[in-house]
Amino acid sequence: EAEVAQSPRYKITEKSQAVAFWCDPISGHATLYWYRQILGQGPELLVQFQDESVVDDSQLPKDRFSAERLKGVDSTLKIQPAELGDSAMYLCASSAQGNTEAFFGQGTRLTVV
Amino acid sequence: QQQVKQSPQSLIVQKGGISIINCAYENTAFDYFPWYQQFPGKGPALLIAIRPDVSEKKEGRFTISFNKSAKQFSLHIMDSQPGDSATYFCAASVLSGGYQKVTFGTGTKLQVIP
Lengths: 113, 114
Description:
The complex is a heterodimer.
Chain A: E1 5-7, E2 10-13, E3 19-24, E4 31-37, E5 44-50, E6 53-56, E7 65-68, E8 75-79, E9 88-95, E10 103-104, E11 108-112
Parallel strand pairs in A: 2-11
Antiparallel strand pairs in A: 1-3, 3-8, 4-5, 4-9, 5-6, 7-8, 9-10, 9-11
Chain B: E1 4-7, E2 10-14, E3 19-25, E4 33-38, E5 45-50, E6 56-59, E7 62-67, E8 72-77, E9 86-96, E10 99-104, E11 108-113
Parallel strand pairs in B: 2-11
Antiparallel strand pairs in B: 1-3, 3-8, 4-5, 4-9, 6-7, 7-8, 9-10, 9-11
């Protein structure tokens, strides 16, 4: 069964260091989402791609976060420098064209110490 | 306008009972309403979804009831089991500017006790 792949599953980093997460969506899915989920809360959209173009990054803290999906397939989310408040689960999801379900990866649990 | 309000925040149900989670929305342009189930340490997984042209959809023990005029929808879990203990998120989405915009509810933590 096709699934969204994310790595790493867990990441511990020191404050002010750089950290990067990788996502490989389901093959053929044009839409890719990066969400941040703080424990006990719902997913919060950070950035949304349609193919290789960013269509929504209104909630992305652009002073420290960046995201790219260069060939319209896999994607990288980077944080530099990491802050204590960035500790959260980072979820990647993808969906096919149109208004339909999003498939989520297992997420990357980030702990900033 | 884009907000989806979910209640209750947490729910404890006895095994065999009915779990009911409610969501309300404002944006009448939403036209796809999925429910996601999330276990600790995992990503959300689609449980069941409905479009506004039907008032109810049932899949096994899970039913979505949809009230378009009231702008409300709910998830019913019949014969709740301990394995159903998870966090449930409702969501609503719309095609806007050619791409899908998804808004999630705040989540309901369900605990089913034996």
